[in-house]
Amino acid sequence: ISLHGLEFPRKPIFSLRVSYSVISAASYTDSSDDETSPRDKQQKNSKGSSDFCVKNIKQAEFGRREIEIAEQEMPALMALRKRAQGEKPLAGAKIVGCTHITAQTAVLMETLGALGAQCRWAACNIYSTLNEVAAALAESGFPVFAWKGESEDDFWWCIDRCVNVEGWQPNMILDDGGDLTHWIYKKYPNMFKKIKGIVEESVTGVHRLYQLSKAGKLCVPAMNVNDSVTKQKFDNLYCCRESILDGLKRTTDMMFGGKQVVVCGYGEVGKGCCAALKAMGSIVYVTEIDPICALQACMDGFRLVKLNEVIRQVDIVITCTGNKNVVTREHLDRMKNSCIVCNMGHSNTEIDVASLRTPELTWERVRSQVDHVIWPDGKRIVLLAEGRLLNLSCSTVPTFVLSITATTQALALIELYNAPEGRYKQDVYLLPKKMDEYVASLHLPTFDAHLTELTDEQAKYLGLNKNGPFKPNYYRCLAPTPPLKTGKPG
Amino acid sequence: ISLHGLEFPRKPIFSLRVSYSVISAASYTDSSDDETSPRDKQQKNSKGSSDFCVKNIKQAEFGRREIEIAEQEMPALMALRKRAQGEKPLAGAKIVGCTHITAQTAVLMETLGALGAQCRWAACNIYSTLNEVAAALAESGFPVFAWKGESEDDFWWCIDRCVNVEGWQPNMILDDGGDLTHWIYKKYPNMFKKIKGIVEESVTGVHRLYQLSKAGKLCVPAMNVNDSVTKQKFDNLYCCRESILDGLKRTTDMMFGGKQVVVCGYGEVGKGCCAALKAMGSIVYVTEIDPICALQACMDGFRLVKLNEVIRQVDIVITCTGNKNVVTREHLDRMKNSCIVCNMGHSNTEIDVASLRTPELTWERVRSQVDHVIWPDGKRIVLLAEGRLLNLSCSTVPTFVLSITATTQALALIELYNAPEGRYKQDVYLLPKKMDEYVASLHLPTFDAHLTELTDEQAKYLGLNKNGPFKPNYYRCLAPTPPLKTGKPG
Amino acid sequence: ISLHGLEFPRKPIFSLRVSYSVISAASYTDSSDDETSPRDKQQKNSKGSSDFCVKNIKQAEFGRREIEIAEQEMPALMALRKRAQGEKPLAGAKIVGCTHITAQTAVLMETLGALGAQCRWAACNIYSTLNEVAAALAESGFPVFAWKGESEDDFWWCIDRCVNVEGWQPNMILDDGGDLTHWIYKKYPNMFKKIKGIVEESVTGVHRLYQLSKAGKLCVPAMNVNDSVTKQKFDNLYCCRESILDGLKRTTDMMFGGKQVVVCGYGEVGKGCCAALKAMGSIVYVTEIDPICALQACMDGFRLVKLNEVIRQVDIVITCTGNKNVVTREHLDRMKNSCIVCNMGHSNTEIDVASLRTPELTWERVRSQVDHVIWPDGKRIVLLAEGRLLNLSCSTVPTFVLSITATTQALALIELYNAPEGRYKQDVYLLPKKMDEYVASLHLPTFDAHLTELTDEQAKYLGLNKNGPFKPNYYRCLAPTPPLKTGKPG
Amino acid sequence: ISLHGLEFPRKPIFSLRVSYSVISAASYTDSSDDETSPRDKQQKNSKGSSDFCVKNIKQAEFGRREIEIAEQEMPALMALRKRAQGEKPLAGAKIVGCTHITAQTAVLMETLGALGAQCRWAACNIYSTLNEVAAALAESGFPVFAWKGESEDDFWWCIDRCVNVEGWQPNMILDDGGDLTHWIYKKYPNMFKKIKGIVEESVTGVHRLYQLSKAGKLCVPAMNVNDSVTKQKFDNLYCCRESILDGLKRTTDMMFGGKQVVVCGYGEVGKGCCAALKAMGSIVYVTEIDPICALQACMDGFRLVKLNEVIRQVDIVITCTGNKNVVTREHLDRMKNSCIVCNMGHSNTEIDVASLRTPELTWERVRSQVDHVIWPDGKRIVLLAEGRLLNLSCSTVPTFVLSITATTQALALIELYNAPEGRYKQDVYLLPKKMDEYVASLHLPTFDAHLTELTDEQAKYLGLNKNGPFKPNYYRCLAPTPPLKTGKPG
């Protein structure tokens, strides 16, 4: 399982961005007790094609309705489709994709199709596929290989069916987690000769690409869409501002007013959580390691404390640091009865949940995603989602946020596919600022928002092109992981 | 069905304060397919008593756990229990109650018991009973007559079983909706000779009591606990500030940021909704009929408009006026595609839902409590809870809010039961200000809040008693329905 | 100086509502060194009249400009003038007034004139007259007797010149502080036979009227305009929300972000202060004696503490309780270096400033209205306005707030003057709710705010008149001082 | 006046950061009518030195008190002094400085002295010197050459007296505006041989340095402290959030509640203005050219408009774009009566004030910094500070903000002075992230803020040094002007 010296985990990575529990909520026709594996079924769509593998092609109609509803909230992709009626910027593109298969993904795939691309698709997570949506895509002619509840073997089989096709070879990769990229590296390294680029969305996948790049083994340009400004602001600040409230309410029905809360970490996620809870009448404390973020917390009206100083008195503990063991067993021992503990940050490392799995503590599952951990003296700690990401486990991601991600992916594919020879090397790039701005501008009509245009005189005065970019390429509001290179706009 | 000239509806009134759909969410053991009517079953609790009628006495253990969890969030009642260990202010009280039967009610009933009272209880709503909780109460010896899914005949039979007992006659009534009071008026008017007073919680029930009083037919003192300041602030401003967000998220998963919202009515409910949505980044417009409330909306930063002026552009319409037909078919015709319409106000009169039940419009139920109403041109309006109260249908009422109501009820019972002859006449009273303040003070420890005490010198300067009341009896922040009389503190 | 057994202070009461220091700020032509007393001057206006006594009639032009500017921000009075072009609701009214003489008062007086009234006016404060404005009024024919820097003898002389006129007897009184009313009671009690009513604005004056009423000595109806809902909300909540920031900035240039503040008292003034400081990033603690207000502070996100618990750590102490000795010498001794102490509440009793006038403490005046009180160890406390009202001493009252007061006064005069026999007895009344609402409605156009009108059907459903009142007369948001009676709307 | 081909303006640049009108407010002893030029006076300080030139050395005591008060609010510099008691990181440094001469600068200079440096100082602005402070510095032995009201000839003479000294040659430059740097380039280019670096604070000065660098003519390393994250956040977001309210209040006494405001530009300054006004109850519209900032405005709850769309209805127009002619005569013509127009952005280019100086418009100065511009039809526009920066002209900069700037300057001097050979080339650098973080950390104690420290395990997990930097060097939240290079931390 080592690849050119880099170790990849054998198990498919379950990307953190969208959780299966949420998505399956909408899967209203899944109660079928059909236990046959899709791999063993013979299915054809109404046009006679059988180049797909889904749970049940007959569910296509239900999936189509979901897709239609999603289209209403993804105006940017719909706008791209319209503009593409004349030119087809992806004409000739053969895209192989590996993402969650949801109604929103379907809108993206059908947009790529409208822009001229041929697509083949697998799921990036064994649980996250909406079967009805997969059926609808298959019915409209997309070779989709995915169903909910794949085995690990199924998972790689599906990916393989996407790339290992006679007479068809991908020239673009859209990946979410890096499993597809990994598979091609491992099994079909020659395929990279024709591939013009990789677009990767997840933190994990981006991290792998930087490792490959550092090791000199990245053989095509890659676009890191995870770190685009627009996407980051929405995934973190704006989305979390709403989902922290939503996640806590759905799991605990608690009242926020007057509650004492400590938020660990004052990055974008922490800022969103703090703003929302303060607005609801909670009293919020913040912990930070970085003095600049700490000073911001002060100026925003939050007392900056060490966790130890308030742990006995708070009603809620929220982690969003990106760090590990921020909440330790010692902290948990000192919390008061009924204290709620949850994580909005990095995967599931922030709360030392493992330390709670000791014989003297009793776990009681009181609701889906809610455990009471009971101390010998009767004290109960309310642990949400077992320390995994609250907003993914216990709330939903609004379509609008997914729309921004999907649009960013589409534009990254267009950019890489059309870039003139030499613009991008075998390296990892950020989306050019101008395209980042374009993603944002495509979402403004949702808010009936009217952008001001520079006059010629003003553009000259500012030394800017009237159409942007309006900020330098390195303008960002978030710290990315490794050193980044930025593409130049087309 | 007329009673002393007043017309009562024959059907039991389904009180608006807590909806069955919410409560049943927690009812995890109800999937039993036992179809036998409880009235036909022979059940005994472990002490051998069969003076009760519930769905299944064996579910008592599950209900007990729910009660124990609720106890943790109802500190005021628990504090009353403690203080009552010495004196028993309800010793000798025989209370007949008719309310929703939930874990929170159970905590109230067991508190009344601890204070010395004997209780008999029925449900005020045919759907709202939590069977496990009813079982737990029956198991601990409370004569409870209630189950989820009663017929109308069952409903009155249960009430009758509470009052029509050999060798036991109630001397206090705790009612929620007025059905119990109505039944006694109708069937056992003589019982009122021994009854010291009625405590009524609901708007509807209070309204009936004022009608009786106006007609000179109220024959015992009654306490209107609906209009106490503390309860009102929590039921309206604070609770709605949170539940508007919760209700919208659970039903639509929408994003609030940047959305244009019109809130009809700027009373306490409207103020709560506006504050919450503004804090989440929505752009909020307000409509009002009262210029004083209108001016407050202006000063709070909301544009005051007529509904017509913004109806084409808004993403969400929320009614909270207490009025009828605030949103008409004409408004609905002019809304844009995907506009969400919901009601936080008065029962289900505010949106003219009936006007949408016409042949040219298609209704599509897309989720529980969510309908798409589709116009011939494809426009969809998203109607929540069919225009019924959003916060009751689509979110939950936090235990803390219910705790304030329950404590108010308990104190009203104590006040009426212990009031010296002549303090209360045959009229409807508000809870004395001092007791209203006492309810509030019992809830302060939840927030580790420390009240300042007046010095003797300061009390003299202000002309106040050091223990309150701190405001005159007529101090209120909300307009009650009819002219009110206020009791003097004991 | 005792009047019918009631003791009045001999010195004119300096009303608290508008401070002279503020008003004089605009008095740009006062550097004249003319030391002749106005009483000794012979002045005539351009029409030849000399029925006035002001500092210098030649300053009229400057005053006129101030009045014109004020007119632009007093749209409600200007609207009243317009509506009065047809009817003259004050035709025949002879109003004697005693208020601060400012540009805003001038707009009021000229409005009363336009409505048909004859007016004679004196100042209610020996320092607060704007000489230019007084000159402008005199120039346009108003008999005004007032100048800045009157002696006490001048003060009463001016009042006397207003009422003691041959061939003219007042039938209405507009008073601010009660001095005019007192003078008539004392000197010309028979005048009350023709007087239809008194309109009183100040807390002090209202208090005296209630005392008179209680003693059975009030011989005409009086209208307490101080406690009207609209006026109170603006004088307290909305005005203080802004002036707390303004007063602190102008005196100390401090930064609010991150500062720890304790606000004593969570009434309307406290709510305004807390909201503003929270919004600017301060961390705010609250003290309260009333558990209902305390619970509101909790739900609004403020920690409720006793002053002692935080006195060592806070950067700012603000009193707004209406109480005395809220901040004691003991508290002051424990404050940290540079702590700022100020009062937004009741006159100058809240901070025990007298306790700081001891030999071991050094006072250093560092700016106008700012004293450093220095402890032997070098600790400095920053005391603002010597504990008097910060918003009056160190900031200004926006014209818009004064407009609401003036409009309320005008409507109260109209109501009392036109009320049919018997509507008002010899008692103190609140402005009828309907007129309170009318004041509010006259100010809505400033915000381009559009009120919704009830349909006939809705009005019937709600049991309301379409034109209001929309709330019962006793609907209030603030506790008034003594038991109040309310007039019925005309 | 051209220097190596670059054109420098002959007149000294009046830096924009601190305006003279503000500073002079505190200059309470300046009413002296001593008209003798300081250059013609013979003055000695109490130690007999006459190596200085100030207005009046006898005012030293007053200046010392101002310095002492400032020290209390500049804890970071005082902390640096303490830490420097052992080591003297600036031992041997000979610093020539050219900045505003205020109490805060004095605290900086005396800190540099305590750290081991010798200093000579001139003013960067002919009006901004506080004479008393200059006297106090001269009295304690600092060679200071500055007074309020210098002529242009005086200005350069003072600078020359700082650098042209026998037996003393500077090895560090601290500049604010670039005039000092310019003078040395022009007159004493050889001096650069001994100079280890330049620290420059102002936008203008930084711009010049980049021009020099681009032209290959920068002969020593330069540190751009203007663009450090901490300084920028405070100068823009946090400071403007408060000063927009302060500036508007002090000039107009207006009420914010309910007012309609348009803010042009949603960068950090715009974000601060919008947040503050929204919190005070204003209704805020935003204009933007950059779609990413525009989308942020939407998500923060502001309607994004073009200026034309709202210009007729708004009560206040605020520019903060950094652009020119954002508000044109056409806009001004369409504004409503009493509309207030002001600038929080870039120098005085944003509002086309020149277009208002036409014969048909009348200007009326109604207060200091407030002009009414009157149209022929009587419409008045209220123009503040003639379109110059409102927060500098009409409010004050809190000492805390100046403390951050001064600390940043001190650390930049220490870094450049102690950097090992080769760390810095002849280029313009940003303050290393670690030192930026250090500035922030030195200000945390003001807020009693407690930073969390990483455990070894956590530091390893994150790949960070436990002492920072915690963010990469290029992490910024603001767009700087030209391409930047960043120094590595020492």
From TrEMBL, chains A, B, C, D:
Q: Give the CDD domains listed for this entry.
A: SAHH (cd00401)
Recite the UniProt keywords alphabetically. NAD, One-carbon metabolism
One Pfam family recorded for the sequence? AdoHcyase_NAD
Query: Can you name a GO cellular component term?
Result: cytosol
Q: How is the cofactor bound?
A: Binds 1 NAD(+) per subunit.
Looking at the record, the residues that make up the S-adenosyl-L-homocysteine hydrolase NAD binding domain are 236-397
Which region ranges are annotated with the description Disordered?
29-50
Claim: NAD is one of the keywords in the record: yes
Q: Where does substrate bind?
A: T102, D176, E201, K231, D235
Q: What does the entry list as the binding residues for NAD(+)?
A: G267, E268, V269, G270, K271, G272, E288, N391
Name its GO BP terms in alphabetical order: one-carbon metabolic process; S-adenosylmethionine cycle
Give the protein's cofactors. NAD(+)
Q: Which SMART domains match?
A: AdoHcyase, AdoHcyase_NAD
Q: Does the keyword NAD apply?
A: yes
Q: Report the sequence similarity comment from the record.
A: Belongs to the adenosylhomocysteinase family.
Name recorded for this polypeptide = Adenosylhomocysteinase like 2
Organism, scientific name = Canis lupus dingo (dingo)
